[in-house]
Amino acid sequence: ALLDTLPKALRKDLGDTQALAVKVAASIPFGKGPLLDAVINSVRTLARINIPRDAMRLDGVPRHLRFLIRVVDDKGELVGSDRDLYTLLKEHGDRARQSFVNAAGKTLSKDRITDWNFGELPERVNLPQGKTILAGYPALVDRRTHASLEVLESPRAAAEANRAGIRRLFILAARDELDHALRLVSELNRMATLYATLGSAAELKDELTSIVADRVFMSGADTLPRNREQFVARLRDRWNTIRDAVFEAGDIVSKVLALHQQLQFRLAGQVPPAWAAAAADIRLQLVLLVHKGSLAATPYEHLKDLPRYLQSAVVRLGKLQTSGVDRDARFMGEMASLWRNYLLRLDARNKTGRPDPGLDDFKWLLEELRVSLFTQELGTPVPVSVKRLERAWAELV
Known about the structure:
This protein has 397 residues and is α+β, with helices and mostly antiparallel strands. It contains 17 helices and 6 strands. The chain has helices spanning 8-14, 17-27, 35-47, 85-104, 155-173, 175-183, 188-195, 201-218, 228-238, 242-268, 276-289, 294-297, 300-303, 306-322, 325-352, 358-374, 386-396, and strands at 69-72, 78-82, 110-113, 125-129, 132-142, 147-152. Strands 3-6-5-4 form a 4-stranded antiparallel beta sheet. Helix 5 (155-173) crosses helix 8. The longest helix is centred in the C-terminal third of the chain and has 28 residues, at 325-352. The chain is globular, with a radius of gyration of 25 Å. The two termini are 15 Å apart.
């Protein structure tokens, strides 16, 4: 069943997957390491093919073939069971997280952290809980004015939290230099006015600060600091790039906010009935691209493209008057199923909290497709088409 979740191209390379599956199942040692790693290693040995770890999707396995997971308390009593891990996390996650915190004790729980003064940040700790040993994943959690050291329930959750938490410590350590550089941005007051529909001037400053800190201290490295020495070394090595990063980020954000206001103004006015579908489409696109917190949350490589995406929407509105509604409707129809599938899956991720990292990459492909269809003259950095995205979606699913 796991092999059947692979993209079609990989399944084709494997040949008879049923026969291979029998051999794989027979070759996997019981109870040694993660299942996906064992399957990948076995396929590599038997079929001489390397399979990326994220190419197999456990959630693509039929429900009746999935492991039945039982949740027990510290006395060994059953408190819940399901074949879907995320259903159990939703039902019992808060209690489990509190259990991690309690088991960690004072040595791995610390609040009001404003400097790296807590020693090494381990990737994993074993926490005794009753008769069992829990695996905990220490992380720095961003609390805006400080960070807190907590034990989280998964490596993915810890990695996501650590990125924001460590970034917060860099912001606090470089606060004076960041504040000084921001005061040198001549258009900061104008940007605050443009940002007013999204939030306050202080919230804009916080977004800009996060963007710059991410750009300066969190990019260009495979690993994050795990101790004070690594943290201080990175702070020292990159300190002199702060001002240039502030001006670069300020220029991008200024363009984004100006285009955002222009689109809001155009869409708030009287829209001809024939434009209703296109206008609704652009409004939704705008909300998903620009909202409070979205600028800081957008990876820098995509933040640089936001002005082009918004400019494309402006040009598209102009073309409704000159090139006609029929052309726009045709392009909307071409990407309708891709856009609908994305929105449905995004909604499911938001409701369940289930990780779906590939979905974010697909979002940016959709934005490039919009440019390619509606405003081809603006250009795209990579070739995109409906067929290309349909293939990408098939592999994502």
